[in-house]
Structure formats: structure tokens, C-alpha cells
Amino acid sequence: MNWTALVVFMIFFLFVTVLGFVSAKWRRGDLDRLDEWGLAGRRFGTIVTWFLLGGDLYTAYTFIAVPALMYAKGGIGFFAVPYTIIIYPFVFMVMPRLWSVAKKHNYITASDFVKGRYGSSTLALLVAITGILATMPYIALQLVGMQAVFDGMGLSGDWPLIIAFLILAVYTYNSGLRAPASIAIVKDLMIYVTIIVAVIYIPYKLGGFGPIFDAATAKHHAAALLPSNNFAVYSTLSLGSALALFLYPHSLTGIFSSSSREVIKRNTALLPAYSFVLGLLALLGYMAIAAGIDTKDGNAAIPQLILKMFPDWFTGFAFAAIAIGALVPAAIMSIAAANLFTRNIYKEYINKNCTEKQEARMAKMVSLVVKVGALAFIFLFARQDAINLQLLGGVWILQTLPAVIVGLYTNWFNKWALILGWVASMVTGTWMAAYMHFGNSFKLPFGIGGGTMIYIGLYALVINFVVSIVLTWLFNAINLKNGKDETVAADYQ
User: What pTM did the predictor assign?
Assistant: First the structure.
């Protein structure tokens, strides 16, 4: 047991726990209303939104998994850096339109928008189910990152994880989105300090970046230069992951909670600062190789590197940063999943006449259930199952793009065509992933490109668009009735 590291860890963990509970009084609102509990009243400005989205998108698992992939597989792990860069021009153009129409019609989820745009409860239900299914393994992965930290400090057994998530569940229930937003400020400052110290101190101890890249190249021929046969996989994986990133319910929760369109635009200019840090973070995988870390579990590489290179007190600080980095996204994800269930399943199919107070109470209860479910998943299934399902979740959530993103610009698509396109792409994408043993790429058809592999999510998305376009043309030709659009062009401005 590393007692010094544990004491430092506990100090910071207790601090953010207290912060999570008192944040209920921050920008006080009526927490018996769903838009106050789940979106903090849509009052977050540029700085808070920057921390919230940063805490939401750059998770503890990112801290562990990206350098772990660099450690285990070499240069392919850098795919996470370009995709978090190319997404922001896309967000700048698209998300202010979504914020405007959501504000106008009090939409709290993407499914609310889909129902309003296409007049289809069925399509909205499918988008909600996709979001919940894609989010659950994502929450479980935060537990994987936290477990790696507990193991590194010598805390064995399941009880540390259970206690941490019980605390998280209670203060999220009490404070809603205000809790992760306030904790995200602390978390991100700690992450920045940890990364800056790591990229200066560790290379200094190892003799500079030259020996680090030499060691990485000795282990992986692909360490510094990507092999040509990986170009298509690398680029399509980056593009597909970028398109999927702001379709996840927790990402959209950060968008909906912003106070204006300008806040979103300013954040797209500021958020690439996290991408710069992510690039530095990825290099920790190479540093682990150069430091002689030898483990078959890639997720253990970074905790072992921190334990080996830093004094105990800073190890406790860095571990606290990673653990808090798990709490913030897990809280936002559970709130987002709860919003989806409450708005698009409970209120739509179970209790159509529920009051605002009943709606908020149901969302709070569901956020508890979601966390318990994620905890149970980790205990009942292998860690690799969570990773496989998270990869599959990326394929699934990408299939909501035609209904959500294209829908912001046109209502030309027939609602039944979109439903059948979603079905075709979900079945195809899931089959491809299972066929490849939950790999992320599949060969192009008919021998195109000489067996070139591309990201399965994009593959399925193309099928989605083809089916939706062809069937919309066909349904329009036979005058099949479409749903009623409750929005007008001015709502998107």
C-alpha cells in the first residue's frame, strides 16, 4: 500500500465530493424541473462550458487508453488526436443551429428534436435507445480507468469502486448537472498540471525525447511512422470518430446547457487546447516503453509509469486527477441517459401526463439506476466486454447522424425511410463488428482497393444514407404520408 499517495488522493477526492454536494446552490434553480436538474437551466457561459465539455469529452479512460494504445500498438494510437481537431469546425457550423431550435421548443435531448422535426415518436424512440445503449458501456469504461488507479495504489477488491460510485450517484442525484460542471473545473486544472509536469519531468529523467522514440521504435516498427496499409483505417477511423463524438448524448448535454449560440462558437475555438494536451498525453505510452514498463495489460502501463517515475505525493495527485476525470464524464453520461429515458420513453409511452416534478424525479432515479447498471456490468462481465461494447457504441451512435444532423438542414427525408435506414445500418454494422471479433475495420466490397480496410461505422453510415435516400424517393413517388414538422426556418437562426 502506498500510504502517501493514498492520503493525497483522499484529500482531493474528499474536496470534490464536498464540491459536488454544495454545487446544488450554484446558480440556484428549481431542481424539481428537468431543464434545471439536467441542463442547469441552460445558463452556462463560455468558461464553464469549456470546462464541462473538456471534462465530458476527455475522460479518465482517455487518460488511460490513448497512451495504452500507443504503448501496445504504436502510432495508430495517434488517431485520437486528429479526430478531436477536425470535429470543431463541424461543431462550429452545426451545433448553434441545434442549440437555437432546442431553446425555441424546450428540447432537452436529440430525440426531442427528431420527434419535433419528423413528427415521429418511433424514430425519436430509436434515437433515444441508440443513445442509451451507446452510453452505458462508456460509463463502464470510466470505471475501468478508475480501477486501474486503485490497483496502482494497492487498493484491492471491489469496495473502493463501489464507494466512489455511491458518492457519485448521491451528489449527481442531489445537484444534477451543476455537480459535474463545478468538479470539471478542478479536474481539468489537475489534468493540465499532471500532463505538463509529466512531459517535462519524465523525458528529463529518461535522457530526452530521442531515447524515448528510439525505445518505441525498437518495440514497434510502426511507432513513429504509420505503415501504408494502415492509412485508410487511420483516416476513416478518425473521420468516423469525429462525426460520432457530438452525437453522444453526454456531448449534446454540454451543448444544450450553454447559454447562447455564441458560447458554442467560442468554445469550438478554445476546445482544441485539449487536443494539444491529448497529443502530449499520447506520448506517455512511448515514455512507458522507454522507462522499461513491462505489462501485458496496456491499461496498467500509465499507472505503472507514474508509480515508477514520480515521488509518492505527486503520484497521489496524478491518480486523483485520473479518478476525478472518471467521475465527471460518468455523472454527465448518467444525466444524459436519464434525460433520454425520461423525455422519450417514460413521458412518451408510460406517463404522458406527468408533471414537471414527476419528470425530474424520474430522471434522478434513472440516473441512479444507470450508475448501478454500469457498476454491475464491470463486476459481472470481463473488462474486454466493456471495451468491445464501447467500440460498438461508436458504430451505433453514428447511425443517428442522418436524423439528427442532416435534419438540422432539411426535412426532405421520409420518416419511415430514416427508420429503415437506421435498421439496415445497425444490423450491418453490428454484424461486421462481430464478424471481425469486435475489430473496428472491414474490407471494402467487390475487391475495391485491393482489400483496403475502412472503419465499420462509416461503412454502415453509407448503407444508412443509401437506404434512406432511395426509400425516401420511392415513398415520395407513391405519396406515402410523412410526419408533421413543428419547426420553421427561423427556429434555427
Answer: 0.89
